[in-house]
Amino acid sequence: MQPLKGFPGDTVSLSFEYLVGWPRVVIGNVTMDWPQLRLQASDPTRRDVPGEELIWIEDKILHFTIPELAPGDYQVIIHDDKGPPGDWIYSFLETTAYLAFPPVWPFVLRSNQAQVGLQVLSRK
Fold it and tell me: Domain residue spans in the chain?
């Protein structure tokens, strides 16, 4: 992924292959989860499909807004959580179900996070 730059309030769009679960984005001390993020299909014919209805294995574009942070360089960490925020039972059951089906193991057992640099710019 290429380093990003923008002002607080700007929308960032990142393309992902095989974004399987429920994304969570951490920038500095700010965490954004499902309600603050938007997923969109990479396939132009499916761009109007709501994020929660996308097929788990299709390629997606993750959109988020740069939070109010002081100007500077940050690491954006994108977590691919295995369930809704705070729902550990769902996460456990979903992961267990995936493990029972060997063809999906490469997707379930991979690293569940990605990182990219972000330069937050000053409006002054």
Answer: 4-120
